[in-house]
Amino acid sequence: MTFDNSSGLLKLDFNERCDKVNPVTEFYPGGNKLCLYPKRHPLEQQIAQMYNLNPSQVLCTNGGDEAIMLLMRIIKETSRLILPLPAFSQYIEGGKSWSIKTRFVKPLKDFSIDMKSMLAITRETKNSVSIVTRPNNPTGELVPLAQLIELIEVANENNSWVFLDEAYIEFSQQKMDTSLLLEKFENLVIMRTLSKAYGLAGIRLGYLLGAERLVEKFRQRCLPFNIPQLSLDIASKVLTQTGRLDLTDYCQIINENKVELNNWFSSIGLKPTASEANFVFFELPNGQAKAVCSFLSKNNIAIRSFESSELSNCVRITIPSQLDKLMPLLKQCLQPELICMDMDGVLVNVSESYDLCVIKTVEQLSGKSIDNESMERLRSQGGFNNEWILSQRLLSELGFEISLDRVTEVFQQIYLGESQNGLCQFESPIIKERFKRLIGNVKKCEFAIVTGRPKEEAITGQNLIGLTQLECISLNDVEQPKPSPEGINKLQQKYSSLSWMCGDNVDDMQVAVASNSLAVGIGTTNRDSLYSAGADIVLDNINQLEKWLCRIEI
After folding, report:
1. pLDDT, position 347
2. Model-wide pTM > 0.90
């Protein structure tokens, strides 16, 4: 394949391979251009025509990322940064990495931008750059146009300017295009991208619109050939009137799905922010955001959680064009129809009964002592939810091979004693009365107990905690004990597969994973082993679920 030299120009000034094209480029219709350094200027002219601007007011960048990097460099060299929170992480990290003097504006309680404080700080900070992301990331908030204009005017009064990040603007229902503000204001730069609504994050193409003097600051600092020719060609086709039809159709689908999602969230007591972007953002009770992210990840759905303390209980979910995969799993996380709970260590304190029975059984049959660490070591491996089997294994480790029947006999003598005067009498409820009342009032959700106890002891435990109305799957009700999911599978078949499993040991978490239940670990000393076994969240005790459940219809 030879270079198309229809122009008659033999280009020998940039040391390009210009007269014989690499055959690898044959797959691409414009392959004969790939031997030359790319020129972004034709695309900048096309974009300028779209917005009725001069080409000097447009700069194409390698995605929005390059524009933000250049922005940080400009601020570092000439200005100070004013950044309202919550903000896109790249602005926060960029300010840190460039050691920029930054004034952060704390958000209001609903995570919206405090524009009153933003205006006050901008008014008193000369020679500054105020960043406004509109719609905001991660909340989707659209700062009202009147407030944006006021901010630009205030900045203009003290030799400052505004950087307006509109990466998600195509999803917004607003009527006025903010590019029209460029006719009036010389202290405004707008950033847009093809990564979001256009669905072309892979070509890495963004662009800036703004006052010529400000855009020139970016142009002077960017690389001369910052965008590949393929990306420029694709962008040129997408930004035609025909190419923008897909954009309109896609944004309409996303906005319709957003309405459906928001209506459902409202119906279950959640209050997502008023998002004008292609995502929803909402806050959950302590720990639940982590659980939701973990469970959805297990089911091959990735959503966004946050590390900052202010947003640690919040999630952001990008709205897909089809909701059929997301909705059932979200419902399972936020509006379960079946909640299963282990008994020992979750509902009943057995530290002075079952745990002590293991120690005394081993001591009686071997004459040797063990400690709690030995028990927890085995439990963390899984397969030792049954204390009889646990006791037998500990004896084996001490060199005593004793039948399971004999171990069980001794264990039960110590546990039950005569007429229930054994160690069983020292058991006490963990679950609080307030939580029990909540269980009785939650509608459209069944609660059940899945325990490794024999039937009679399970009934005794239910009487102790006062939850005799709950269905209980005991050791006698299954052919395979935990970590087999047989017990919870029976309950799922009877009630619903939209289930949670709450337990204090590795076997319970394995049961949850095997039954695709949201896995709630309970414990303070074995958190790592519970997470390793598949826990979506580990709480200190079962009563911490109260705030999660209060949102379910009661």
Report:
1. 97
2. no
